[in-house]
Design goal:
The chain is mainly alpha-helical. It has one domain (about 60-275): Orthogonal Bundle (MetI-like fold). The protein is about 75% helix and about 0% strand. α5 packs antiparallel against α11, α5 (about 70-100) crosses α13 and α8 (about 145-165) runs antiparallel to α11. The radius of gyration is 23 Å and the shape is globular. The protein starts with a helix and ends in a 5-residue tail after the last helix.
């Protein structure tokens, strides 16, 4: 084991990992440079030519993009969809995961099997029936309707993930808390949630990235007033073709927010992914 750690800490391995990281970031750097170039410069050569001629780089495209009310409205729609969808899934899944792991109630195992079975149901199967239902109750084309779809399809995986994580909490810890007079809600808030922070952070990252980058659900359930940035960019491509001065900065803004969220929670994300792999 010591030899393996020594090998992983060697300068050669570190250099290799840095190289892999740079290769992974190359498309992001190319998109950022493309977003700073004019359409004429983009037509004359690839984004790498800007490295030799940095004078062609400017933030004019971003000024144009941010001055477009439709694009800024779509950006805030994305925020209004992604944040509630993530928060609702995390809260509901945490409560359900704790109940399935540590509370005894009739039909607990059968209900959990149904939740697990829903993991294999493709999202495309329910899109048209749900769209028809939303049309009848007045939710079709609205932000709450898009949020409800994301929450419904995100909950099976979320409940499955948190239930399995919460089930690894030592039983003696919960029994000691009950003996001290703690009720289930207090135990959940003051004990289970702090212990389950890595798994909850991992779930929040997964859910946020899925909702933020989604286009299928929003393309069907959102109208022009509630469409997120992904649908707005797709509409720009369909209507105007290769208008790179709008698409490149819009795509970079759409990409940079999930990256910021991921790097902000990467420590908890790594702990959540590794949880249970080592006793």
């Amino acid at each position: 084991m010591t030899a393996v750690r020594r090998c992983l800490n060697s300068a050669l391995v570190q250099a290799f990992l840095v190289l892999i990281g740079l290769i992974w970031l190359t498309p992001l750097a190319g998109l950022f440079l493309s977003s700073l170039r004019s359409p004429e410069d983009t037509a004359r050569g690839g984004w790498w030519t800007a490295l030799a001629r940095p004078g062609q780089l400017s933030f004019d495209n971003y000024s144009t993009l941010l001055g477009d009310s439709d694009m800024t409205h779509a950006f805030w729609n994305t925020v209004l969809i992604s944040v509630p969808s993530t928060a609702l899934v995390v809260v509901i899944a945490a409560l359900a995961g704790y109940a399935f792991a540590w509370l005894d109630f009739p039909g607990r195992d059968a209900v959990f099997l149904v939740v697990v079975a829903l993991l294999v149901v493709p999202v495309q199967i329910g899109l048209l029936p749900v769209a028809k239902l939303f049309g009848r109750i007045g939710l079709f084309g609205s932000i709450p309707g898009v949020i409800l779809v994301h929450v419904a399809y995100g909950l099976p995986f979320a409940v499955f993930l948190l239930r399995n994580y919460f089930a690894e909490i030592p039983k003696e810890m919960l029994e000691a808390a009950r003996m001290d007079g703690g009720n289930e809600l207090r135990i959940f808030v003051q004990l289970v949630l702090p212990v389950g922070r890595p798994a909850i952070a991992s779930l929040a990252i997964f859910q946020f990235l899925w909702v933020w980058n989604d286009m299928l659900v929003s393309l069907l359930f959102a109208d022009s007033s509630s469409q997120p940035l992904t649908v707005a960019l797709q509409a720009q491509t369909r209507q105007f073709g290769s208008n790179i001065d709008v698409l490149a900065p819009g795509a970079f803004l759409s990409l940079v927010v999930p990256l910021v969220v991921f790097f902000a929670f990467q420590r908890h994300f790594a702990q959540g992914v590794m949880a249970g792999s080592v006793k």
